[in-house]
Amino acid sequence: MVTTLYLIRHCEAEGNITEIFQGRIDCDITPKGERQLDCLAERCKEIPFDIIYSSPLKRAFKTAQAANRFHNVRIIPDEAFAEIDGGEMDGHKWNELASLFPSTYPAWENDFPNFKTETGESMRQVYDRVSRGVMKIVRENQGKSILIVSHGCALRNLCCFLRGLPLSEIDSCPWLDNTAISCYSFDEHFNSTEIFINDCSHINNDPELAPHKMWWGDQEELLTK
Predict the structure, then answer these.
(1) Tens digits of per-residue pLDDT, 75-85?
(2) DSSP summary character for residue 23
């Protein structure tokens, strides 16, 4: 019995274009994000979702609603897939983090698996949280087609887990773009296989809908949590 899991990262949110560490800041989506969601809804029309789980944060939940536009299945808010709690970093601009938090921010860039703020979550806590969350859902929905809508850092940890990798190897996993779709299958023993990752073909044909690039320029790591 095969279980299919789809992952989608939220559309462009206000914190992306203002270039802040969003974390648990509940930013709304942008007009560009709304247009991205129209494309996403059309893309998801033929994907047979049986159930949808979403981070409760509105940028993710509105993305889940768009993916559900032509399905009308149940959307379940689930804290397991909320973004990392950035603690004291939440709400600050990315280009100020190194100077504001010189003892903690460098790990984000140079030692990602061991990143931890003083008042928020550690990367280990995020990895464990999303890992437990996804396996609970897969076991409860065996044989179904499941969608989880979440955030950049949370999904990077989740993809690392689904690839069978320890947190120490998370740097081998890509950052996912806004509204990117990834897909995994699970066999009857709950072993996962990656089918595809970070597919943005539904917005790639329109340059105006391309994911926002951060202040440090055009990098593969699109750090727009």
Answers:
(1) 999 999 999 99
(2) T
